Amino acid sequence: MQRELVTRAMGGDHEAFTGLVDGSVGRLYAVANMILRDHDRAQDAVQEALVSAWRDLRSLRDPDAWEAWTYRLTVWACYRQARKDRRRSLVELHVQLDDETGPAADIAPPVIERDRLERPLGRLPIEQRAVIVVHFYLGRPLSEAAAILDIPVGTAKARLYRGLQALRDAMRAEPEAPLRPAAVRAS
């Protein structure tokens, strides 16, 4: 089905391209957001990648490579976004409580653990962060991650190794926060 949509879109079919975008925009945004750590810049990067995809769709040699190709365009757009404004670093933590869970639900442990990982991930150079996101978040083998990022496999391995080492070091250096505040006893 996807191959057919890509082939039709390559012929200029706007509806086919819209179908492709609808099927992939969520994943592309998630990747961009994990790499850039900023919702607005991630949206801009995805939009830029999709404009490039439409403009350059005829240059895609293999319709089955649509997914990897759009990931590559998205990562490149993330690199451009990061270069545009290196000073800006915004990390937002959104916590939404479900009314049905009520006060008994304790969301603190997962939020604390997620924050504990995301802060050092956000401090990594974008090239290392991109390899980690493509390899672990997308679940792509390192050879495919290297192809998506358009870098040699050895470079991908080195960036992954250095990025994971930096994450380990940062997490070791940061004391683990207690999951619950200590109870205050009245005397």
Characterise this structure:
The chain is mainly α. The protein folds into two domains: 1-85, Rna Polymerase Sigma Factor, Chain: A; 108-178, Winged helix-like DNA-binding domain superfamily/Winged helix DNA-binding domain (Arc Repressor Mutant, subunit A). Helix content is 67%, strand content 0%. The chain has eight helices and no strands. It has helices at 2-10, 14-36, 39-56, 66-84, 108-123, 126-137, 142-149, 153-173. The radius of gyration is 20 Å and the shape is elongated. Mean pLDDT is 81; it is low at 87-105 and 178-187.
Task: Give the helices and strands, then pairings.
Blueprint: H1 2-10, H2 14-36, H3 39-56, H4 66-84, H5 108-123, H6 126-137, H7 142-149, H8 153-173
Provide keyphrases for this structure.
187 residues; mainly alpha; Rna Polymerase Sigma Factor, Chain: A; Arc Repressor Mutant, subunit A; 2 domains; 8 helices; disordered C terminus
Brief write-up:
67% of the residues lie in helices and 0% in strands. The chain has 187 residues and is mainly α. The radius of gyration is 20 Å and the shape is elongated.
Gap between N and C termini? 70 Å
User: Looking at this structure, what is the CATH superfamily of the largest domain?
Assistant: RNA polymerase sigma factor, region 2, helix turn helix motif
CATH architecture identity of the largest domain = Orthogonal Bundle
**Tertiary shape:** elongated
The CATH class name of the largest domain reads: Mainly Alpha
Estimated radius of gyration: 20 Å
